[in-house]
Known about the structure:
This protein is an alpha/beta fold. The protein is 27% helix and 17% strand.
Amino acid sequence: MTDDPRIVYGRxxxxxxxxAEFRDRGHENLAFLLEDDKWKKLGFKNINEFAESxxxxxxxxxxxxxxxxxxxxxxxxxxxPAIGAAVGVKRETVRDDQHAIGMNGGGRRKQNDIPSQNVLxxxxxxxxxxxxxxxxxxxxxxxxxPRSAPxxxxxxxxxxxxxxxxxxxxxxxxxxxxxxxxRSISLDERYGKAFPLGFTPxxxxxxxxxxxxxxxxxxxxxxxxxxxxxxxxxxDLYGRWVRDDWIEQVHASxxxxxxxxxxxxxxxxxxxxxxxxxxxxxxGTSVDEQKRVHLAEDAFRKIxxxxxxxxxxxxxxxxxxxxxxxMFDWVVIGAQTETRQPGGVVEAFAPPFxxxxxLYLQAKDAGCKVHIKPxxxxxxxxxxxxxxxxxxxxxxxx
Length: 398
């Protein structure tokens, strides 16, 4: 066997989808990488990150081979969620495998060393392992360790009408927009456990692997929305306060899973310039005030080599004047929905027809596709018929 961990890791990845080959030499390769922590030479920060990268999901139905992998990864100190991600099963299955082979999931890391919280599970008090997250300003917070591999969240309703998924490796924002739906959700006491620091920017490293582990449901296979992922729907990933290493890690995750179309959106588009943007990304900026118009135009003249460049005019709260829209492929226009903010209720607002019509004509003259969100029109149903709004997407045929 070669002594180069990179070559051995490559062979392990090649054999992962063929159970017979994994049985013959895969376990030998895995044992080699775990011996003396050779996986560290591959750049992984910890054993869990290495385990999650393995993608040995073909072993999920092969109990004997799977339990061999569970055994060696447990001995190496990997957690149950990381092992589950490695072999394509839930944490509970890993636990059952460990019990079956006489292991209790201790490995090198003692359970007493893991922060935990009391949770009620099936009527019994259990201890839930915790992980440590960090905010943009150095605050530290304990957060429940995921029970399984991370995946995207399916979007609901018309709020994100152009994507089937959302993904939030970063949450929180400091723009201070008075109408922000994300802030209203994060400060709602019903969702307090999901947002332990409220709307303070927080990095969720445990969600970075979601692009690898999300699978499009069979019933959605022909729906193009389920190829699109709205990245950081609960944050501005490119805000001035966001640390460079956060962006680098999120980009690395996107670049490592190019099967998705990543929809990006920011109010600070200058930060896009010079970044290694995923070539399959829909790179967007949000303009809600006239003062942001020149920032958008200046930045997007410098952006190239991405799938779509798009402009979000949601909420359209005042008439906007653009000198040129030709640097955009797609324009989305939407209304302001009602939200409950710390200072009280912010009422819904639909832009006047004249504002929308003028922007629509300018966008079409510039060659843009236009999507006007249903919330611009208000209530429409069988009893309240309304006009059909433009509903175009960049990949639609002309």
